[in-house]
Amino acid sequence: MTTKLQFTSDIAFTPTVKAIQARKGSRHGYERMEQGGSWESSMTPELRDFIALQTSFYMATVNADGQPYIQHRGGPAGFLHVLDEHTLAFVDFSGNRQFISQGNLSENPKTHLFLMDYAHRQRIKIWGEAKVIEGDAALVVKLMPKDYKAKPEQVIVINVTAWDGNCPQHIPVRFDATTVKEAIDARDQRIRDLEVELARLQQAGY
To answer: Structure pTM?
Structure first.
């Protein structure tokens, strides 16, 4: 049963966390944040746009003994779907078939998603509760990325409780290989075009 939160950020800022913040001098700033509205509890249009561009995220689960587990999820842009302002879903592709995340979720539905955009130095943290849906072929068809060569195993649906965006401090700038290749190809084409133009001008006596 989910505990009613006074502030959305209380999902992470437990009394113990707040005591540490007070001891280390950051509690006052976070109290102001709480009074100003705390973290978001529903997905904004900006977050929807951000999620639609992501090709990767990490999902954390915890088993009944409190042992955490983090698993990477990847696919084409848009494979993580925003169904409505409180719900995310994605097709869980067949992999090494350890089923650790599914086992953890059967014992404890709480989950955490970590989305990182290295190119723009932006990260989004999402708290929620997840369930695994097996045997729903229509839902798989609805959520499966078009022409993506992966075997669908099941669907994971996440009810979002809270989300927050972190500052870009300490995030290294990294670019997707496809983006880099496109930039290099465009540069090389520009060089070829300039070489052709230079040859034309030389033949013209310039």
So the answer is: 0.82
